[in-house]
Design a protein that fits this description.
Structural class: mainly beta
Radius of gyration: 23 Å
Strand order of the largest sheet: 2-3-4-5-6-7-8-11-12-13-14-15-16-17
Shape: elongated
Number of helices: 3
Helix content: under 10%
Strand content: over 45%
Order of helices and strands: HEHEEEEEEEEEEEHEEEEE
Largest sheet: 14 strands, antiparallel, barrel
Number of strands: 17
CATH class: Mainly Beta
């Protein structure tokens, strides 16, 4: 367990946000990040419990089969290229990690603590233009940088009511901040007579705060069939000026989010998973954000898992998945859609009494974001480390 925490600290210390992430990070609250682990990513999941015990924010029933206290960390680098009309470029970045702790309460209950990203705002743009001043056309360069994000800290609890039915609930707070820096630089080298004009800059920062609550249910009507559902409610999120920034506090109302999923063992060692998530981003209570909202958004996912063989200390499952989603915020006035294919696997690093105590889950996605003249091809690698101890 000590080695696990050393690895986590080293990974987090080297998880620096890139200055050239997806262009979608500049729209609305930024780019939405589903707080799911590598197993869910590989299966096209929406963030509900499956056959593999894990730690998922807002879904403590996913951790009910842990028989030892367990910690996990999920990292997700992403890179690719974009095309916007005649403009082309590349991007890369790494999301803030998902951290989780699960502590079993006897053999039928569990408590969880999670910290995860929800939205990432990370973009940088420079525009060269001319400004007519004092009878002269002066070359200028406007630069805008946006850096920050919205995260969630949650405490959860789940309990089995019977061998086939379990309920769970979690409560927490949104946290995080965003910083916007704008600068204008005047190019006066070609106009030496205009030497009294100074460059301009404006730096502002806001902090996020607000509550969230989720409830979830899992049901195994048959040994081979799992059904699950969750509902997440978010209270008003306060967007407050900080560090001397001017402006008034604004309030953002995030929508109710519904998730349902199922897993069916169609043959020993072979199972199929399907999932669906939906939320309505039509009225968020903040005019500037509402203007970019996409309305009702849905996500669909399907995946197949095959327990291929034993490797190292346990079963080696191979996974393949497909997912189709609508993003919450428009880009250049157009709804953004995401499609991706995924592959993944898990390796059990340590096992006791045929129960995994340490494992690494890996998922690789290849996908596309598209909206009218905007197209973004991306690769997304998700890695989850899990370790448990008594």
């Amino acid at each position: 367990m000590r080695l696990f925490w050393i690895v986590c600290i080293l990974l987090i210390a080297n998880t620096q946000s890139s200055r050239a992430q997806s262009l979608l990070g500049s729209s609305g609250l930024g780019m939405k990040l589903d707080p799911i682990d590598a197993t869910q990513r590989a299966l096209g999941g929406v963030g509900l419990a499956g056959r593999t015990p894990t730690i998922l924010p807002g879904n403590p029933t996913a951790s009910l089969d842990f028989l030892a206290s367990t910690a996990s960390v999920t990292l997700q680098p992403m890179w690719g290229n974009y095309k916007l009309e005649s403009d082309e470029g590349e991007f890369s970045g790494t999301r803030f990690p998902v951290l989780g702790l699960a502590y079993p309460l006897g053999t039928s209950g569990v408590a969880t603590l999670t910290l995860n990203s929800f939205f990432d705002q990370n973009s940088s743009a420079a525009v060269r233009d001319t400004l007519q001043l004092l009878g002269s056309d002066i070359p200028i360069t406007d630069r805008s940088d946006l850096l920050g994000g919205l995260s969630a800290l949650q405490l959860g609890w789940a309990q089995r009511l019977s061998p086939s039915i379990a309920v769970g609930a979690s409560a927490g707070v949104y946290t995080g901040s965003v910083r916007r820096n704008f600068s204008r630089k005047f190019d006066l080298d070609s106009l030496p007579t205009l030497d009294g004009i100074q460059d301009y800059s404006d730096n502002r920062a806001w902090g996020y705060s607000g509550p969230l609550v989720s409830v979830n249910l899992s049901w195994d009507p048959y040994p081979s069939l799992y059904l699950g559902g969750s509902l997440q409610w978010s209270g008003d999120i306060a967007l407050s000026p900080m560090e001397g920034s001017i402006g008034e506090k604004e309030v953002i109302r995030l929508p109710l989010e519904l998730k349902v999923a199922s897993n069916w063992i169609i043959d020993p060692g072979l199972s199929v998973s399907v999932g669906f998530a939906s939320s309505n981003w039509s009225d968020l209570g903040y005019a500037e954000i509402n203007a970019l909202a996409a309305g009702r958004t849905n996500s669909y996912g399907i995946g197949l898992e095959w327990e291929a063989t034993r490797f190292w200390s346990g079963i080696l499952p191979l996974r393949i998945g497909f997912r189709k989603s609508t993003m919450p915020f428009q880009f250049k006035g157009q709804v953004v859609r995401e499609r991706n294919m995924s592959l993944g696997f898990s390796v059990v690093l340590a096992e006791a009494l045929e129960l995994p105590l340490a494992a690494i889950d890996v998922a690789m996605e290849v996908g596309k974001h598209s909206a009218s003249d905007f197209e973004e091809n991306f690769n997304r690698l998700t890695v989850t480390l899990r370790a448990g101890s008594r």
